[in-house]
Amino acid sequence: MERSQATIEILNAKRKLQLKWSDIAQSIERSESWTATALLGQATLSVDESEKAGTLLDLSKDTVESLTIVPYRGTTVQMPPTDPLLYRFYEILLVYGPAIKDLIHEKFGDGIMSAIDYEMDIQKVEDPKGDRVLVTLNGKFLPYKKW
């Protein structure tokens, strides 16, 4: 089964059962952001995790099995993105990316932030002027190796 088909089945089940990503994350004992990433087709679940998600969401056997296959990452969104929310993140990188890069190099040296040894968190911060979105990207610094 294609991961895109599995994602459709997962989202339909999530909606039908009125579950939140946090509910599913609790059932597979992972973070909310990682769970959403995996079930939207961008990470691999273990057999145990996929079976737990499958039971909770009443997924087909094919979908459960597809969740354990290593996906082609980064293929689900066209670039530049057309969805307004995703485009804002793209815009953030266009505007602030050079400053982010320079600040990371100034503080850590020549290297990159890992997207493999990485954690992400999304929080709602209530504010009387309008609720705010707090996005935390936490990746290990990887210096470039000399040889």
Automatic annotation (TrEMBL):
Residues 75-147 form the Cyanate lyase C-terminal domain. GO terms for molecular function: cyanate hydratase activity; DNA binding. The keyword Cytoplasm does not apply. Its EC number is 4.2.1.104. It catalyses: cyanate + hydrogencarbonate + 3 H(+) = NH4(+) + 2 CO2. The active site is at residues 88, 91, 114. It is an enzyme of class 4 (lyase). It comes from the Bacteria. The keyword Lyase applies. Keywords: Lyase. Pfam families: Cyanate_lyase (PF02560), CYNS_N (PF21291). PANTHER family: CYANATE HYDRATASE. Catalyzes the reaction of cyanate with bicarbonate to produce ammonia and carbon dioxide. Belongs to the cyanase family. This is Cyanate hydratase. It comes from Domibacillus epiphyticus. The gene is cynS.
